[in-house]
Write a structure and sequence with these properties.
Elements (H helix, E strand, L loop, with lengths): L2 E4 L7 E7 L12 E5 L11 E4 L5 E2 L2 E2 L32 H9 L12 E7 L1 H4 L6 H12 L3 E2 L3 E3 L3 H13 L3 E5 L10 H6 L2 E5 L10 E4 L2
Length: 220
């Protein structure tokens, strides 16, 4: 806050005896004195309030407007966060505000999890052959980005059991997570479920419509 700093208990007029910038050491002031102060500058030990510059009246080196409560426009050391206060939760996606907060409390580094490399495979001969647009893959890729991870360019595969298996098991090698579309229902052309069943299934189907055939598995 650019303005004038002094003790709230002092009565005007106050003598303006100096100026304090952010890089300065705070000067000592006597009762009845004030200093011009810049935003971010340290307060003199005796000062406990700051009057905004635009609200101040100064004549002949004397501040004639002064009627503030102690603590007005003052940011005290240690009030950004309390000892043992949780600044953010584990698993929370870091944003620019978190970086500013860490710097403010003296944290140079914080432990983080690596972003997932996410593969996307769209199944269906109609998609692979270009007869229908692959709408879902771009939707999934944007969700992955929103969640803070890295989607790979989507791949498509026809409704062929060997091709589905080869593609999924190949994409798994270079990615932490693989998202697939189609192929998990009970149709003759649905081959994703049979591939996942040969690995370590987590669940097959959920109580949700639409979306009932959702399937998950761990693939080593």
């Amino acid at each position: 806050m650019d303005g004038y700093a002094a003790a709230a208990a002092d009565d005007p007029p106050l003598d303006v005896v100096g100026e304090v910038a952010p890089e300065d050491s705070p000067p000592e002031i006597d009762p009845g004195d004030a200093v011009r102060i810049a935003t971010g500058a340290p307060l003199p030990p005796r000062a406990d309030a700051v009057l905004k510059r635009e609200n101040a009246t100064v004549a002949d080196g004397r501040l004639t407007t002064w009627d503030l409560a102690a603590g007005t426009s003052v940011h005290r050391q240690g009030t950004t966060a309390e000892a043992d206060e949780r600044l953010f939760a584990a698993g929370e996606r870091l944003a620019p505000r978190h970086a500013a907060l860490c710097r403010d409390v003296g944290l140079d580094t914080v432990p983080v999890r690596e972003r997932f490399a996410v593969g996307i495979v769209a199944t269906g001969s109609e998609i692979h052959g270009g007869r229908q647009p692959d709408r879902d893959s771009e939707f999934l890729a944007n969700l992955v980005r929103r969640w803070g991870h890295d989607p790979a360019p989507p791949e498509t595969v026809p409704d062929d059991p060997a091709a589905v298996r080869e593609t999924i098991e190949g994409v798994v090698v270079d990615h932490d997570v693989v998202l697939t579309t189609g192929g998990t229902s009970v149709g003759a052309a649905d081959h994703v479920s049979s591939v996942l069943a040969d690995h370590d299934p987590v669940f097959a189907g959920v109580r949700l419509r639409p979306g009932r055939p959702v399937t998950a598995a761990v693939v080593d």
